[in-house]
Amino acid sequence: MPGTSFDAVVVGGGIVGANCAVQLARAGVDDIVMLERDAPASKASGRAAGSLTIYRHERFGAEASRVGRDLYEEYERAYDGLTFHREKSYSIAYSDEGAHYLSLKDESTTVETELLSAAELADREPEFATDDVTAALCIDEAVYTDPEQLTHAAHAVARDEGVSLKIEEVRDFEVEGKDISVKTTNGSYEAPVVIIAAGAWTKRLLQRAGTDVALRPRTSQIAILDPPNNIDLPMWGAPDWSVYGRPTPDGRVLFGGGTTTPVTDLEDFHNRARVPFLRQVGERAPEIIPLLEDATLHDDWAGRVSATPDRYPHIGETDIEGLYVCSGFNGEGISNSPFGARLLADLIGGDDPLVDPSEFDPTRYQGGEEFEINDAVEWWDDR
Ligand SMILES: Cc1cc2nc3c(=O)[nH]c(=O)nc-3n(C[C@H](O)[C@H](O)[C@H](O)COP(=O)(O)OP(=O)(O)OC[C@H]3O[C@@H](n4cnc5c(N)ncnc54)[C@H](O)[C@@H]3O)c2cc1C
Questions:
Q1: What does the alpha-carbon distance between residue 232 and residue 148 come to, in Å, rounded to a whole number?
Q2: ∠ CA(191), CA(192), CA(194), 5° rounding?
């Protein structure tokens, strides 16, 4: 089959790849093809908790979070299957260090927040155990959504922008003059710009292209609990314990965490939660919400995401001209990929970048070095 020329090739049809395609098309890149080996949203992007942390904090700056909120609200308006659930959210600290962190966070964000004592939390949300609580940060309107529907919405918008999607596995790359040739199971695609946005598989693909970036695949896990009685809960996070939770639209409780387990075999990975995580759920859930003592396990699953040494994603050009990466969002790729994709589009289009790109430069590490995987919950990495 003859090669096919495009202006840009995006490898990966999860939320990151789809958002990259949308932002690139809007930056004026005409002919874009997205290559996905399975189904769109079949990997991490379909398994996330769907918490849009850009409504709760501004990890990469207010402007970065705003870009994400604007894009996703546009998707919500454009795509019938997508609903945003708006809830109160509490970040709850159980140590003095945690309380200090919450106060810094309260001061540093433009998001509407309110710092509460344990007694104030008990007064407002009596479902929480508060004996060991040192402080809580209340966000009036946090948002979660179904990440699978969100990813389908991103694909629909990309399609409307003229992006084509091919279900083909990328196997190899060749650099040919100014173009990179992307070899797939069905043929090859040539383009001067190739973006690898393949989640946990990104590092392996970059290595096939002859370069390396500091990424390490790891798990994130979820348990869905059936509470014994109807229970009206807000969203919450317990940064001291690296766990979080939220209500589900059908009256259950989603409990997330289990984020530091490295993935050694990307292909032979079972999508169920691991025993240590389920033990953590059994221990922590009733400590946070005593009513969950008698909850039963309704469902559980695990997904693969990519970690970076400093918990900043890699967004930019690799040491191969024209080969870009957008990956390493750790546990927040649903939330932060609109901003990541926009930054990448700015860099490719030569526009003023939205934020200082040097913090995200994929060549800031050598690439092959080993590193520990940090806890996923925002608190630890921001300290
Ligand atoms: C349990 C869990 C909970 C999470 N909760 C949240 C949350 O609440 N909020 C949040 O913001 N983030 C959350 N995340 C993180 C978020 O899901 C990820 O950061 C995000 O989905 C990454 O998107 P991606 O497109 O990079 O990866 P993926 O969705 O994994 O997509 C990568 C795609 O690349 C494709 N691919 C791989 N190799 C090839 C190849 N050779 N050729 C072609 N295609 C290929 C794969 O098939 C896959 O579809 C969670 C993750 C998990 C697992």
A1: 24
A2: 70
Terminal-to-terminal C-alpha distance of the chain: 52
Instruction: Compute the Cα dihedral for 286, 289, 290, 296 and give only its sign.
Output: negative
Atom of ligand 1 nearest to the CA of 198: 34
Closest residue by CA, ligand 1 atom 15: 331
What's the CA gap between 42 and 357, in Å, rounded?
30
Find the domain containing 122 and state its range.
86-142+217-307
Rounded Cα gap, residues 283 and 169, in angstroms: 41
Residues 307, 216: contact at Cβ < 8 Å? yes
Instruction: Tell me if 59 is assigned to some domain.
Output: no
Q: Is the CB of 33 under 6 A from ligand 1?
A: no
* Statement to judge: residues 174 and 302 lie in one domain: no
Average pLDDT over residues 51-57: 93
CATH code for the domain in which residue 376 is found: 3.50.50.60
Based on the fold, state whether residues 153 and 300 are members of the same structural domain: no
Looking at the fold, whether 161 and 255 belong to one and the same domain comes out as no
Q: Which atom of ligand 1 is nearest to the CA of 329?
A: 19
> Is 379 a residue whose pLDDT tops 60?
no
**Residues 303 and 248 occupy one common structural domain:** yes
Q: Is the pLDDT of residue 180 over 80?
A: yes
Instruction: Examine the fold and report which residue of 307, 340, 372 is the final residue of a domain before the chain moves on.
Output: 307
pLDDT digits (tens, 9 = 90+) for 236-267: 999 888 899 999 999 999 999 987 788 888 88
Average the pLDDT over 346-375 and give the result: 92
Tell me which of 307, 339, 364 is where a domain ends.
Answer: 307
The CB of 237 under 6 Å from ligand 1? The reply is no
Q: Is 235 in the pocket of ligand 1 (CB under 6 A)?
A: no
- Based on the domain organization, do 14 and 35 belong to the same domain? yes
Question: Is residue 303 in contact with ligand 1, taking CB distance under 6 Å?
Answer: yes
Q: Ligand 1 pocket, 50 CB below 6 A?
A: yes
Is there an atom of ligand 1 within 6 Å of 42 CB?
yes
- pLDDT (tens digit, 9 = 90+) per residue, 263-306? 888 888 889 999 999 999 999 999 999 999 999 999 999 999 99
